[in-house]
Amino acid sequence: MKNLFSLLKLTVFTLILFAVIYPLAIYGIAKLAPNQGKGETISVNGKVVGYQKIGQKFDKSNYFWGRPSAVDYNAAGSAGSNKGPSNADYLALVQKRIDTLLLVHPYLKKSDIPVDMVTASGSGLDPNISPQGALIQVKRIAKERMLDEAKVKSLVESKINTAVVGPETVNVLELNVALDQLK
Predict the structure, then answer these.
(1) Which of 156, 157, 175, 181 is deepest in the core (most CB within 10 A)?
(2) CA nearest 131: which of 99, 92, 162?
(3) How many whole angstroms separate alpha carbon 95 and alpha carbon 93?
């Protein structure tokens, strides 16, 4: 009986610790973060158009396209495809993406296409592409929007984020918001 009482006390203690105290502590820490843990939003004219850290689908030809998503940009179902480079379905999907890029960008060669433009990230929600991924789209965007190609290229270059660790990236939503403001 003594052991049962000790086990019951331990159970209640861990229940309170992990079901009440720990979540409240994490919630409190999140409230100290920028935007109180609600995510880093991107707004246009006071209206939230998206989140900086979650990719969105852009498939219109007058916008920069982001990295493909294995979950069709559904944040509730964040996941990769779990298909490796030896999977025939995966290889066919990557080839289809390459073919689409080459069709829409006839000035490109297959070797010009960066890998991030044809493969999904582990989360399926990557908001960033490589600078090369953005730069290969400049000619299409300039033509679609009837803008000077140098102006669009300059915009891309101004949106390149240099990290302390890791590769340079371009946030697609931020780039497209800036593109909409470009005249």
Answers:
(1) 175
(2) 162
(3) 5
